[in-house]
Amino acid sequence: MDISQQILVVGDAMLDRYWDGSVDRISPEAPVPVLRVTRRYDRAGGAANVALNLAALGARVTLLTLAGRDEAGDALERILREAGVRLERVADPAYPTIQKIRCVSRQHQMLRADFESPPLPGMLEALAKRYAALLNQHDLVVLSDYAKGALSHCEYLIERARGDGKPVLVDPKGLDWSRYAGATLVKPNLGEFKAVAGTWADDAAFARLAVALRKRFGWTYLLVTQGEAGMTMFNGRGMVHEPARVREVFDVSGAGDTVLATLAWRMSAGDDAFEAMRWANRAAGLVVAKFGTSTVPRDELLASMREAGPAPAPTPLPRRNGPARDRSESCVS
């Protein structure tokens, strides 16, 4: 693989903090469990987790994001620096780094507390200027949208990248997908897709909705992840479905970040999107067997891929009229 390719990740980064311990009693103040914290640790979340996944796969990656000049922002920077990720932090002293604190007992979440604020005036303009300066140093762009504000003006980011001939991969959020028009590949999960495209009665109707959405917004590829039912990729030639490759589901946190990162890694190396999906599907099956937001090391994924067969060619869109399978979203998001 050509590791000279440079990947630029832009989006909503956050610090995932875990307070781990045991519960032995109920509070006398209210009918709630008391967590006796015995261990605390931090992990990178959101767009930062995408960047970490790319670094774990051996990619050369830069993360452009909004963050605060605070302890949480410094902790996030340390995690990324230790993994070899170049961080471009657009900061403001009055802007707090996004944090999610998870209270955990016996590897089960009891409570999550979120700290976040919308971008302050001028931060998005500063991010756009930094993006324009970084773009010519990179070969592929990944937009990781967690609806926290960093990608509020993503139309400009996509237009600028495509004008420079750079592929753009997007993990979308919200209901207005016109914001992602012109992207190379868009990767919603099943729930996100249904919220925008509507419901369907059978697999053929699902495929027609996907094709219509892809054409409407000018995407080269549309990938719909479907949890335990796998994932399906559409483009102008047809579609390919990959069944899930999951031995054990332990925690689905961040699985969508792993899928997005693996797609970007393989496409930057020259694979077409269908082959990249095959790798991403394997990576998803590995990461859901780990606790919390995690990464899949390159060697681990390579070993898993030795068991995989070749990628199938795209098939014509189905015209089945039978009942659709229940594709509940559980493994990949």
From TrEMBL:
tRNA-binding keyword on record: no
Basic and acidic residues composition-biased segments: 323-333
Keywords in alphabetical order: Kinase, Transferase
InterPro entries in the record: Carboh/pur_kinase_PfkB_CS (IPR002173), PfkB_dom (IPR011611), RfaE_dom_I (IPR011913), Ribokinase-like (IPR029056)
UniProt KW Transferase keyword: yes
CDD domains: RfaE_like
PROSITE patterns: PFKB_KINASES_1
Organism: Ideonella lacteola
Annotated protein name in UniProt: D-glycero-beta-D-manno-heptose-7-phosphate kinase
Signal peptide: none
MF annotations from Gene Ontology: kinase activity
Residue ranges of every copy of the Carbohydrate kinase PfkB domain listed in the record: 5-295
Domain of life of the native organism: Bacteria
NCBIfam families, per the entry: rfaE_dom_I
Disordered, as annotated region: 302-333
UniProt-listed Gene3D superfamilies: 3.40.1190.20
SUPFAM superfamilies linked to this entry: Ribokinase-like
